[in-house]
Amino acid sequence: MHIVVCIKQVPDSAQIRVHPVTNTIMRQGVPAIVNPYDLFALEEALRLKDKFGGKVTMLCMGPPQAEDALKKCISFGADDAVLVTDRSFAGADTLATSYALAAAVRQLGKEQKVDIVFTGKQTIDGDTAQVGPGIAKRLGLQLLTYVSRIADLDLENDTITVERRAEGGVQVLKTAVPCLITMLEGTNEMRFAPLENMIHAARYPVRKWNKEAAGIEDVTKIGLKGSPTVVSKVFGPTPRAEKALMQSVEDATPRDVSLNVIQKIFTQHPTLERDILAKASV
Amino acid sequence: MSDAEVKKPAARGGRNLELPEHLKAYKGVWVFIEHDRGEAHSVSWELLGEGRKLADTLGVSLSGVIMGGPDEPLDAIAKEAYSFGAEACYIVRDPVLKGYRNEPFTKGMTDLVNKYQPEIVLLGATTMGRDLAGSVATTLATGLTADCTELRIDPATRALAATRPTFGGSLLCTIMTLAYRPQMATVRPRVMRMPDSDTSRSGTVIEDSLGMIETDIVTKLLDFIADENSNKVNLAYADIIVSGGKGLKTPDNFKLIWDLAKVLGAEVGATRPVVQSGWVDAERQVGQTGKTVRPKLYIAAGISGAIQHRVGMEGADVIVAINTDANAPIFDFAHHGIVGNAMQVLPVLTDTFREHIAMRSRKAA
Ligand SMILES: Cc1cc2nc3c(=O)[nH]c(=O)nc-3n(C[C@H](O)[C@H](O)[C@H](O)COP(=O)(O)OP(=O)(O)OC[C@H]3O[C@@H](n4cnc5c(N)ncnc54)[C@H](O)[C@@H]3O)c2cc1C
Ligand SMILES: Nc1ncnc2c1ncn2[C@@H]1O[C@H](COP(=O)(O)O)[C@@H](O)[C@H]1O
């Protein structure tokens, strides 16, 4: 069995700060990490490999330094890693990204037939959840998004049964492999990388593919040129016109402050009081 | 942000940003109407509210798209869509459209777009809407902007200017699809205001067929397991929310939030660090990576008011914040601020609310 897991290297947004005065992003020194959502996809792939054998190949499109993210995945137990990297990919939106990644998956399929492609639910920088569906459509793969559990994989008959998170419930879907799965977060827990794996990963020769090696047929479909969306401006949030009406327990008792707030909100919003009276349990 | 500030972006990287002649025929605004087990998702009505404004600005019509099985109440849903501002509904009725599956819905939507050529298509950023939007946009090779917080028409280009958070929510960016049609966008539930319903409004139905049979479809829907507590935590649509942050210090103190919520008949919300510490379930997280809420009253205790939290709750009608730090960012957008220790203020506020409610109920009786 051959599983391809798509991961993205992203800035650790928990550490991004916005300059309080200029409202610009302070990106200096922010470490790059494997998109946290993608680790759930990788762990699920590794579990399938534990059970059924086969090979897990990591795939990432990004700048040369994204090699580190792929090595991290090798340390967890992935078998091989390909970094699709070429200047002409720069500025890609989700449509152009899915085009490039789909081409690379096709190339990987020439080496060994691909049974399942995994992606994360979404990235923490792009945050669109569009790249997974995009790859599936381009490759004509059955698409299973927001998968919370793989209930059954039958490699004899090439079928897979999964549970998919939907609004208000869980869908149980059965489909054919090859398919593309976007894995829901919190569904599993990434294993620890043993020391020997880390050493192996550090030395692992990540394969680097430029656009030719990745099998890009139409260069007008990648990078900025292949991106229909145009970012027209980036700006900080606008402050509200007036500041809050402030009261402090330094100046009045908590009781007085409470009475005051309750009186104010109920006079300003009479329907609110009615709603509360209708529902409240005293 | 004023309209004048949205400049026409310059062509970069040899990109042609002019709309090709053959795409100029694309007209009208569409909203995908999501429904499940007989009921439309409110996000669809919120989108019709926004779609109405876009259509009026452009001087074009607003339509809903409804797909489903023959035994589903699609006509009733269309009627509801008219009451929220749609002038027409495209209805595709087919047994294979009962219960959402990517393949038949993608085909249905893609065929409709190719046939009737709308310029804008809006979908809810739900598990259904996102699954469908990504597939349809790729199939049509057009632009899609996810999780928008504001939709406008750029006066210079008449293109959709879709604003969404970026860089982990610290900034916003405006995105346009200039040279492709349709322009697609998703919006999360509750981000847009619910429009008023007017049941006297009516509209036209345009029925279309799917041209697919069950054996064409590889993926089978074996079962749907409804969530047990699906109605219990409905944070997004709660009228009153009492929310707690890391300032409460311990899970034990967090009980003060539950106490106040109980008195007010409110839902409990929380910040991300609170969820990550395991004090409450993830479904109670408010913010960019949690739920967007739009209650009538939002009480925030021990919450700093970081932008990622703010984007999820600033649509509340009234925000009351309790924080020890008079300079906490939450006071920049709350309506009523109480500077003080939440552990001291919350129990008193709870008691005072309780007494007030008891008194008013007695009067009413
Ligand atoms: C990509 C990304 C996504 C994110 N998504 C979300 C999200 O969806 N939702 C979310 O909430 N956060 C999100 N965050 C985190 C966000 O940036 C903040 O870190 C978080 O909202 C802060 O939570 P807090 O206010 O509970 O804690 P803190 O920032 O620690 O604030 C605690 C506050 O309590 C006050 N305080 C202390 N003691 C008391 C007391 N005794 N009484 C009253 N007040 C007291 C302090 O003055 C302080 O203002 C996200 C971050 C990133 C990078
Ligand atoms: N540049 C990339 N390289 C590899 N995989 C990616 C890339 N961008 C997105 N993905 C995959 O697509 C998923 C969804 O990404 P997004 O649409 O950006 O939210 C991610 O979780 C990744 O698995």
The interface involving the most residues is between:
A-B, 93 and 110 residues
Number of helices of chain B: 8
Question: Mind describing the biggest β-sheet of chain B?
Answer: 7 strands, parallel
Counted by DSSP, the helix tally of chain A is 7
Q: What is the helical fraction of chain A, as a range of percent?
A: 25-40%
Oligomer: heterodimer
Low-confidence stretches of chain A: none
- Rg of chain B, rounded, reads 23 Å
Question: Major β-sheet of chain A, in short?
Answer: 9 strands, mixed
Shape of chain A: globular
Strand content of chain B is 15-25%
Task: State the end-to-end distance of chain B.
Answer: 49 Å
Total strand segments of chain A: 15
Work out the number of β strands of chain B: 18
Percent of residues in beta strands of chain A: 25-35%
Q: Can you name the CATH architecture of the largest domain in chain A?
A: 3-Layer(aba) Sandwich
**What is the CATH domain class of the largest domain in chain A?**
Alpha Beta
Mean pLDDT value of chain B: 93
Helical percent range of chain B? 25-40%
- The helix/strand order of chain A is EEEEEHEHEHEHEEEEHEEEHH
Give structural notes:
- The complex is a heterodimer of chains A (282) and B (365).
- Chain A contains 7 helices and 15 strands.
- Chain A has helices spanning 36-52, 67-76, 94-111, 131-139, 195-203, 254-268, 270-279; strands at residues 2-6, 9-11, 17-18, 25-26, 32-34, 55-61, 80-84, 116-120, 142-154, 159-166, 169-176, 179-183, 207-209, 229-235, 245-248.
- The longest helix of chain A is centred in the middle third of the chain and has 18 residues, at 94-111.
- Chain A is globular.
- The termini of chain A are far apart.
- Chain B has helices at residues 42-58, 74-83, 102-116, 127-140, 251-264, 272-276, 307-313, 342-364, and strands at residues 29-32, 35-36, 39-40, 62-68, 88-93, 120-124, 144-145, 150-153, 160-166, 171-177, 183-187, 204-208, 220-226, 240-244, 267-270, 297-301, 318-323, 336-339.
- In chain B, α3 (102-116) packs across α4 and α5 runs parallel beside α8.
- The model of chain B is unreliable at 1-10 (pLDDT under 50).
- The chains are: A alpha/beta (282), B alpha/beta (365).
- At the A-B interface, β3, α3, α4, β9 and β10 of A face α3, α4, β7, β9 and β10 of B.
- β15 of chain A pairs parallel with β18 of chain B.
- Bound molecules: flavin-adenine dinucleotide and adenosine monophosphate.
